[in-house]
Structures are given as structure tokens and as C-alpha cells.
Amino acid sequence: MKSPLLNSLLVLLQFVIVSLTYDDRGIMDSKRRTSNVCRDTSECPTNAICEPRSGGVYDYMEGQCVCRNGYFMKASGKSRECIEIADYGELCYMNEQCEFRLGKESFCNNGQCSCKSNSHYVITENACFNSSKIGEYCRLTSNCVVDKTTCQQGQCRCFRKHHPNLNKSKCLRDINLNEQCFTDDECVVENSHCMSGTCQCKSSHVRSEENDQLCLPLATSIYQSCQQDMQCSSIPNAVCESTNGTCVCQKDHHDINAVRIIKDSSTNDELVTFEISFNFFQRCWSSVRLNGICESDENCVIAHSSCINKRCVCDEGFHETRDKFCSNAQKVQISFLVVALVVFTSMRLF
């Protein structure tokens, strides 16, 4: 026969075991116990059963009323009742039915379990979470409401090899230049867009010759900045001058608004006179010197010359010098000689 002390210890141990019982969701069943003492289920509230404290070992020991699976205990004054748990979208009549499984971000909305405003339902978690958009603060990946996002360093970010669209409402797969696309937002290279089903540089830009995943701005006039010759391609006969990083006319071409040669300053025939025009530089003309074949006056690079009968010749009032420039100085010299001769003849007569 067991001693009273040993019986007391066994009762205490059995009580602790029953108190630590968990339900099917891993939640301690304290939310299911009604605290009602019972010997039979008929003595328990509706939707509750009588579970013996001893597991049926000792007949004289009483049990405790516990809500059935799928129900939780709710106190109402001194009474206890078992309320049915409701999942997302199921019928309800109180918030606690939804909160039991869906969490505190859920509530009973017009008789149906829903997530609160600024919260969303995650089916894999069967719970409601506070919603965070791309770039916003998050604690868990479940907070990130946008598809294909994850919580990284406290912020919702798109998956690897994905990027947000302009309004950050979704994550798009990274599409590089010359790869198939459906929308402009998919093209990840800056200043590119989706054209004819592939990502290409915009019309205002040109694909780099050195980096095939880079779009460089296209120059629209001479003297705009550049890094590569391709940026000057919209200007005929222009190249990128590497020294100062601007588009300039290539060799044997000139900009009529900027340069006319008036005199050779060296054996390299440097252009020494610059006449800047507000009609900004749009074209490079083929440079034609005196007596060369031309198409228009703009070809004639020598000052005071024009294209006449398809040849660059000096303008009226100017003549061609020995060094192939146009000048009116000889006429002045001839006039001076005539005057000097007249004076000398007059002196001889007297």
C-alpha cells in the first residue's frame, strides 16, 4: 500500500503533465481548458470534453473540462464557454475567433475573418501580417506584401536578378540589352527600353562599344561631351576628341559656323579664326581650299571665298594670293604705286 505522501506526489506530477498539454497548433491548451472540474463529459460546457487528470489510472480522481479541437475557451463573467475557431474567410461573430490562428492583425469583418487594413494574408503561414512594400521596414519576409520580395537587413527587397518597377508595386526580372522583353520596365540597363521585343538603348542614347550593357548619351551637335566615337554618330563626319572629351569635326572637315581660315599660322595650316554663331553647330562640312571642287559655299574653308561653278574662288573684291588665300591688299598697293608714279612724273615735268 502506497503512503499518503507518495500518492500526493503522483497527483502533483499528473497535474503538471496535464497542464503542459499542447493542442494541434503547438499552442498550450490553457486556452482550451475551462477550469471546470468534472468526472464525465456531460458535466462540461458545450463543445468541451472531460479529460481525467490521472489519465484514468485512479478512479477517485476528478478530471477537467477541455474544449474540443477547433475550439477555444472564452470567459464570460464567472462562466466559461467553448467558441469555434475560424480561419481566413470563414464565418465568425467575434474577433477572438479569427485572432486565435490568424493573429492580432486579423478581425471579424462583417461576419467573415479578414486581415486588418495595411495587413495581408500569407497562405503558407495561415496568418495575417503587417504589410510592407518594397523599400519599407520589415521584421519578417511575411511582412513583404509584394510578390518575389524578401526581408533583407530590415527592408523588403526584390529577389536576386530582379528589380522594382517605377512605382515599386512589383518585382520584374532583370532583362539586359538584346534580351527578350515585353515592357519597358523589364529593361534593367539605364536609358534602355523594350523595342521590337528586345531591350535596346533609347533613341537619345547609343550602345557602348566597350561595354555592351551600357547606353551612352547621343550627342546632337558638335562640342557636346562624349566618351566614344559612337556618341557623335548622329553628326556626319564628327568624331570624339579624346583629349577634351567632346565631339569635333574629323580631319579635313570643319564647322562653317565656327571656323574660316584667314591665314596659315604654321605649316600644319592651323585654323586661327573662330566666329561663334548662335545657330549652334549641327554639321561638319568637307573642307575645300581655293580652286578645289565644291558643292556649296559652306565647303569653302578659306575666308572670303565662295563656291562658284563648283570651284572655291575668292569673292568679288578679293584676289588669290601666292599662298592660296583671298586678300584685297594688292589693290591697295597698286593704287599707291599709281599715285606715286603720277607724283614722280609731275616733278620731272617741272
Automatic annotation (TrEMBL):
Per the UniProt entry, the signal peptide is: 1-21
Q: Which residues cross the membrane?
A: none
* Heme found in the keyword field: no
Q: Which InterPro entries match?
A: EB_dom
User: Taking every annotated instance into account, which residue ranges of this chain make up the domain EB?
Assistant: 80-119, 168-209, 282-326
Q: Tell me the Pfam families matching this sequence.
A: EB
Keyword set, alphabetical order: Signal
State the PANTHER family in the record: EB DOMAIN-CONTAINING PROTEIN (PTHR39069:SF9), ECDYSONE-INDUCIBLE GENE E1, ISOFORM A (PTHR39069)
Q: What is this protein called?
A: EB domain-containing protein
